[in-house]
Design brief:
This protein has 326 residues and is mostly helical. The chain contains 13 helices and 2 strands.
Length: 326
Amino acid sequence: MPDIIGTILWPIKWVIEAILVAFHWVLSAAGMDPAAGLTWVLSIVGLVLVVRAALIPLFVRQIHSQRKMLEVAPQLKKIQDKYKGKRDQYSREAMQRETMALYSKAGTNPFASCLPLLVQMPIFFGLFSVLNEANQSRAGVGLLSQDLADQFGSASLFGIAPLHDSIQSALAANPVETVVIVIAVVMVVLMTASQFITQLQIMSKNQSPEMKESPMYRQQRILLYVLPLVFAFSGFAFPIGVMFYWLTSNIWTMVQQFIVIRNMPMPGSEAALAREARLAKKRRAKMGEDAEELAEETVEETKARIQRQQPVSKKRAKKQSGSKRS
């Protein structure tokens, strides 16, 4: 099994190393210390930016899938009500067939929203493997040479917190590495908070009444509390370098969700109503500006017509008046 996992992760690790080494080279060329932990941390941040930018098409697909799930929510509830209370095998199979047929017709499935996370997991494990091997002063599978691996493995953030250390290893050290524990705990808290805020803004602002009646909503309510706990417990054993990747990725997700919820909210959700109110306010303001511009143009045109009228002399005006009387 380890050989199979290693074979799967090999190309991922190669790409990860290439991105890390590329950012490390650029930062070093810009004058930063190649062996400094900050240089490697910024390289990890660059890795996150590249990976998450590459995942934007998948995120857009996830949004479309959520829209389709919203469309089929009423039909899905009808199927569930149809077989409510029926626990025999035939009813369960019939319910499953009808549900899958509904998903197939809509061109979606309930697992599509997990796709970006599933794609990121091999990348995360690849980065963890690269950091672990660098910690052991082992060269990577690609561009991470032995010298770079030694630099990465011995790099410390601000010279006091080795990137390969974790809360677990810091507690086992003699003496206990208190600074590492403090930095790691702060990062775990930030990771957990960012994940919770991301999920909470989806649950509170971007759900329609129909969606809140669906099984997916109940699953999301569970994830609202489960995922932060996963970050809290897993942060105990993960190296600081890996947590920098995870924290930066969480912040990207939080900002990305905020932008999407504000500009492309779920129809019928609280965010959609807020967006309609903003657009209506802008339309009223625009209409007011257009009315003012129209009034100004009318005044200018009136002034122009008055100025174009030629003045009539008194003699000519008297002559015109006499001709009219005759």
